Amino acid sequence: MRLYDYSVLNAKGEEVSLKEYEGKVLLIVNTATGCGFTPQYKELEEMYEKFHNAGFDILDIPCNQFAGQTPGTDEEIHEFCTLKYNTQFPQMKKSDVNGENALPLYGYLKEQKGFEGFGKGVKALAMNAMLKKIDKDYKNNPDIKWNFTKFLVDRNGNVVARFEPTDDMKKVMKQVEELM
């Protein structure tokens, strides 16, 4: 299968085929409303505004699998994001990204780009320490580790990069810009 063979549900529960995004640069991100990384919504919206008219989209998939940091309904999540961060990009139905109920799309994304570490810095060290307590072998599986993991897809549907939540958003912006 290829990326465009998958679909997700939007916040209203309607099926959205990823074929709708064919020919666009796409950033797929699992989000949360009550996470230390939630302020990344600001940079995501800035990216969306800067590149959307040139063929860039963001697929926001809220997820409550990480410390229950997205407890609200789809409507409450949407309201939070639009009021606090003025988000305009498509927001999908809250979904799992790991485990038996994970969206099939996430199985595909994780096959294409596995976990390669959190990088360096204070946030990376904190994430490593926290995850070691949860799963001693976390480094050796491709699972999504936390909220705001991002997958960058080129105009041909190739998953070209995976960004962990600890990655600097400037790095994400730079790679998006290169694909534009």
UniProtKB/TrEMBL annotation:
<keyword id="KW-0560">Oxidoreductase</keyword>
<dbReference type="InterPro" id="IPR000889">
    <property type="entry name" value="Glutathione_peroxidase"/>
</dbReference>
<dbReference type="InterPro" id="IPR036249">
    <property type="entry name" value="Thioredoxin-like_sf"/>
</dbReference>
<feature type="active site">
    <location>
        <position position="35"/>
    </location>
</feature>
<protein>
    <recommendedName>
        <fullName>Glutathione peroxidase</fullName>
    </recommendedName>
</protein>
<dbReference type="GO" id="GO:0034599">
    <property type="term" value="P:cellular response to oxidative stress"/>
</dbReference>
<dbReference type="GO" id="GO:0004601">
    <property type="term" value="F:peroxidase activity"/>
</dbReference>
<dbReference type="InterPro" id="IPR029759">
    <property type="entry name" value="GPX_AS"/>
</dbReference>
<comment type="similarity">
    <text>Belongs to the glutathione peroxidase family.</text>
</comment>
<dbReference type="Pfam" id="PF00255">
    <property type="entry name" value="GSHPx"/>
</dbReference>
<keyword id="KW-0575">Peroxidase</keyword>
